[in-house]
Structures are given as C-alpha cells and as structure tokens.
User: What shape does this take?
Amino acid sequence: MILENIEVVRENIKAACERSNRNVEDVTLIAVSKTKPYTDIEEALKSGIRDYGENKVQELSEKYEILPKDIKWHMIGHLQRNKVKYLPNKAYLIHSVDSIRLANQIEKEFAKAGDVAKILIEVNVAGEESKFGVKVDEVLPLIEEISKLEHVLVMGLMTIAPYTDNPESNRTYFRQLKQLSVDIESKNIDNISMTVLSMGMTGDYQVAIEEGATHVRVGTGIFGERNYNI
Ligand SMILES: *Cc1c(COP(=O)(O)O)cnc(C)c1O
Assistant: This one.
C-alpha cells in the first residue's frame, strides 16, 4: 500500500507543479513517519524517498540507529530545549524553531558536537492560539538575532496551516508565508537564506506547492492513519 500511495502523491505533486509552472525537482517530498514502525520506512525507501519527518527526538534517534545512514531526518515537531543535545549529527533539518532561547540551546549543543544546525523558523501564519510558532511580525527580529549564532544556519520558513476539509482555505496562509520569505530574502542578512519553504501536509500539499512550497510533509497520505493508542 505504501508504495502505491507514494505513486499517487508523486503524481499529485507533478500535477501541482505543472499547474503552477514549477519544476518537480524543486519540490522535496518528506515522508512523515512519526508513530510508524521502521519496517514501514524500509518499504518507503524502495521508492527512492530519502527524506523522513519525525516529531519526537527519541523516536528520531531510535530510527536513526536502525535505518540506513543516508536518510535525511527532518525534526518537524515541537522541540524541547532539553532534547536538543540528541540532534547533532542526526537531524538534517530542524523545522520547528520558534524562540531565541531554543536557538541559543541549538547553538550550544551543536557547537559542542562540532556540527552546524540547519533550521527553519516555524511561523504561526494563521495566528491560531493552539499552535506553536512565531507571529508573522516577530519573524524578522528573531532571524536577526539568530544570524549572530555561528552553529545555526537559517534555511527558510515552515508553517502548519489550520486543519481543514477545504485546502483552498489555506491558500492565503501559504501565500503569506511565501511573501514573508521573499521580504526577508531581500534584506540580505548574513548567514540567512530563504531557500526552503516547508508547507503543506496530506490535506493541502497541492495548494502549498502552487503557492511555492519547496518541501511538503506528507504522513497519512503515504503511511495511512496514525494510531496514537498503541
Ligand atoms: C504529523 C505532521 C505532518 C503530517 O501530517 P499528515 O496530515 O499526516 O500528512 C506534517 N507536518 C507536521 C509538523 C506534523 O506534525
């Protein structure tokens, strides 16, 4: 089932790229494997997908140990400062940085390990109370602070759009995140690039691609529903 699902997702990505005149090579599919057994990832690896997303540091670390070392592990979930020490030399990209305190902790632990962290700033574009992420007008000041850190490299922005049955209703948030990345890019801040735009999940990744996503995070659409009760 997993390989068939990946085929469908890839077809959808291709169609969204065609609709928006984008190259399919410019969109990376991250398979969100959280809560799923490593055998599911072994299955997905047969499709050639090398990017996997996890939202818990411990689960990411365990899967890192078991699975092939050329996998790019994306830390997409809320990150507690006391867990950062497990990420150097394991996490390929941290999508969920939303405070200077967290960035400082990443600086400290990655410096200690002789690694440089690639990170995204998580933006709460829709301003939902329940969500992590910084408000749109707080992103630039945060990035200016982080640009001083030697072991933290800002690669772009990430957002989790509201849960909805109608992906069109999230288009406005994806567009706002893209615009924000263009605005920040134009400021040419040291150490800061805006090449990554991580947005779009199973319900809305096609709309996100039409609005400029470079990385989409698809879980359910590849591995099926998650069961949190096991
Ligand atoms: C779980 C998760 C996803 C994947 O969600 P699906 O709806 O299953 O595709 C994407 N991004 C983040 C941050 C997640 O936590």
Q: What stands out?
A: The mean pLDDT is 97. The chain has eight helices and eight strands. The longest helix spans residues 2-19.
